[in-house]
Amino acid sequence: MKNIFTMDELKNSINIIAGTLALSLGVVLFFLSNSITTGGTPGIALLLHHLSGLSMGTIVILVNIPLLLVGMKYLGKLFAFRTVVSIVLLSIFIDLFAVALKIQSITDNILLASVFGGIFIGIGVGLIMRGESSAGGSTILARIIASKTEIKPGQVILFIDFLIILGSIYVFRDVDKALWSILSIYITSKCIDRMLSGAPTTKVVHISTIHADR
After folding, report:
1. Residue ranges of the alpha helices (H) in 32-174?
2. Start-to-end C-alpha separation, the chain
3. What is the mean pLDDT of residues 190-200?
């Protein structure tokens, strides 16, 4: 594993800390008390939390340990190390806010919770990915499946998110909230794309005319 004490790794660490903090706040401030969910590890943890009563931080660790053990060779040592750090920080921050500080959702309006929760989580995941890491869960599974089959990672993640939405209908007994969850996941994906690709810096203007010689 290459030297981790470099300026690039410092930037990665800052992105990972900021990303896990934003992701945790998105879950606690908008999703946890409103019985709506999101994709990936946070979504799975939300559902299992409501089913089991275990803290979300504990579930995040329990869900990711077997995936990390299986997927270590597919991630690369440094990426795997960053992913472990991200998962541990995510677990600590969620339990700090939800259990230790007992922070409640700041709105009970489902539309606002879906939109702003999706934005917070999108920014969080985007920052974690900028830090050359992942939040674990579906990302690890997607890499493993993609390495063994011709299925693209994005397709695996989309399928897992679909299963999470179906699971939310069973757990919360509310189709409307499942639909709000779909909106939130869409917003999250758009935020991640913007975080990773940035805003467009150029514009293309097409002019149609019959006077091309003028």
Report:
1. 40-52, 56-75, 77-95, 110-130, 138-148, 153-172
2. 62
3. 79
- Biggest alpha carbon distance in the chain? 73
Per DSSP, 35 falls in state T
pTM for the predicted model, two decimal places:
0.86
At 198, give phi and psi (nearest 5°): 80, 170
Q: Which residue has the tokens 């979300």?
A: 56
Instruction: Name residues whose C-beta falls within 8 Å of residue 6's C-beta, 6 or more positions apart in sequence.
Output: none
Average pLDDT over residues 95-123: 94
Residue 88: burial class (beta carbons within 10 Å; 0-12, 13-18, 19+) = middle
Radius of gyration of the chain (CA): 19
**CA-CA distances (angstroms) from residue 21 to 83, 89, 201?**
15, 8, 29
Contacts 24+ apart (CB under 8 A), 95-103: 95/55, 95/56, 95/57, 95/58, 96/24, 97/24, 97/25, 97/28, 98/27, 98/28, 98/32, 98/55, 98/56, 98/57, 99/55, 99/57, 103/28, 103/29
Distances (CA, A) of 128 to 57, 60, 82, 169: 17, 16, 9, 29
Handedness of CA 64, 159, 195, 113 (dihedral sign): negative
Candidates 191, 127, 161, 190; CA nearest to 38 is 161
Q: What is the pLDDT of residue 143?
A: 76
The encoded tokens of residue 22 equal 């934003």
| Placement of tokens 């998110």 in the chain | 161
